[in-house]
Amino acid sequence: MSTYNRRQSHKQRVNPEIQGIIRNSEPANMQAKKHYQKAHVNREKRILFLGAVFATIFAVQLLISQVKLHTANVTLTAAQDRLTAVQKTNSDLKSNRKRLDDPTYLQQILRDRYGYTKQGEIIYNLPSNSN
Asked: Has this prediction a pTM greater than 0.85?
């Protein structure tokens, strides 16, 4: 004899009154079950909706921070380019200042830019080729 059959052999009959109560309570149980299933579905929908709202908020915040980061990077790049140009100009000016300490260079600048001559020099003005 199998275990299942042995268990079934000890089964007692249900009292007919209790059996009637159980039958009469089945529609109420089904209605309660439907109510709880509906409540469960509504709760799932609310959770999913709130999750979507939070995900949207975080996505927007991420997008805004990325735009700000990009703007800051563009500004930084422009400032670095400007700094490089100013540093180059500064180094050129420093080298020119050092060259101004040389008397020969000073004489050359005075002659080229300002038309100074040494005593006894004669300057000839020749016509240019561009007519």
From this structure: no
